[in-house]
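Annotators were shown the component list below and the corresponding predicted structure, then asked to write short factual statements about the assembly.
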Amino acid sequence: MTDRVTAAVLVIGDEILSGRTQDTNTNFIAKYLTTYGVDLAEVRVVPDVKEEIIAALNALRKKYDYVITTGGIGPTHDDITADCVAEAFGVKLYEHPEIIEMMQSRWQGELNAARRRMARVPEGGSLVKNGVQGPPGFQIENVFVLAGVPAVMRSMMDDVVPRLRTGAVVISRTVRVEGAGEGVIAEPLAALAKAHPDLSIGSYPFFGPTGYGSNLVVRGRDADLVERTVEDLMEALGDIGAKSIARVDA
Amino acid sequence: MTDRVTAAVLVIGDEILSGRTQDTNTNFIAKYLTTYGVDLAEVRVVPDVKEEIIAALNALRKKYDYVITTGGIGPTHDDITADCVAEAFGVKLYEHPEIIEMMQSRWQGELNAARRRMARVPEGGSLVKNGVQGPPGFQIENVFVLAGVPAVMRSMMDDVVPRLRTGAVVISRTVRVEGAGEGVIAEPLAALAKAHPDLSIGSYPFFGPTGYGSNLVVRGRDADLVERTVEDLMEALGDIGAKSIARVDA
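Structure shown to annotators:
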């Protein structure tokens, strides 16, 4: 785990906390980072409150290699992410000429104060391309500031990932056990986990109208070790009386 | 906002951070709490790592009225939530006789070590009923420890909410603007937000194949004020050239 690269996601938005919106951005970012060997190590969701955003951002950017924020970069009064990021870094915001130009060509003369808000970038920041609609996001040091609208956030991630130092990709393999509960799976699973401290071995139970069981997930950066451990796991589970034990990876 | 009651959700689970699982528990809890006038003020997702769980739990339980954790209370080696909660509170875990009895009647003699793990509750804790499957969760002081499996977590919330001090319920009203962007909505919206510091007024833009616009959400605990503000908002938006401006609440 020596070359582990870590990231945190900071979701900024009252709408997630009120339950109005189901956050799907985190899951998209988690999968995207996993593909590139970057470990999403923490997620925080905070309201549109300046002190909360700044405190969370400062905690996360010191602790992890990267921080990706989503939300709060539009033109309305509740969009305060850029202000908070600038304050966290102790720098000023300025109107980025490239964004102003982009907006002038789109809206002709109609660059009102609200739209100009979206052209503000912290000093020392660079732009993150928006391939869909509207102004770009930005990067300052190890922090990437993205939109909250999922389609826009997703397109911005395409411009974030090439900038990241990526690590060894984590290989993940899943064994699905049906008709046996965690109570009987736990012992052989724990023995394997103990024998392989470099692997992450988890159990994710399911219950439903069609039956019960658990998905056992073996994760690690050494593909051979993951493979051998999956085989050992299936053998160890041979006599727990499960209805079926099967690999479910594509 | 004097009787504001706050809560935080602490999601414990590698499977959320790896992107394997889309967290839906937070959204369910957010809506449930909102209905009862409890403000979900922060969410954190942390991995199955003892130090991280304890640090997050201690930060959140001191800052908010309540903390609800999900995940990590099963019988497998990666289920370490109970251990972490006990350590955070500086107390010991003990096997709760009621859970042992419950499990003995279900599994007869087969109470192995893994299953007994699920009977462990911190000293001073009380049980949170599981109406679906398996052992209960528990409460210790202002912390509620629930399962991660959504169906189980949801049933446990029914036993959590009656124990909460609830606040004045937040009324939320939405105005959907089509065919006008936030750039022209921002100014009248900001004026209303400034005039009503006790309300939370947000703008949530959408873009799609069928058009673009924004959902404007007015939230507050004074129903009359929310209603008047929505009316003022619709009037103020009259001349921005939108295709349609309509209330979309049920």
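Statements collected:
1. Residues 8 and 63 of chain B are 9 Å apart (CA to CA).
2. Residues 171-247 of chain B form a domain with the TATA-Binding Protein fold (CATH 3.30.310.180).
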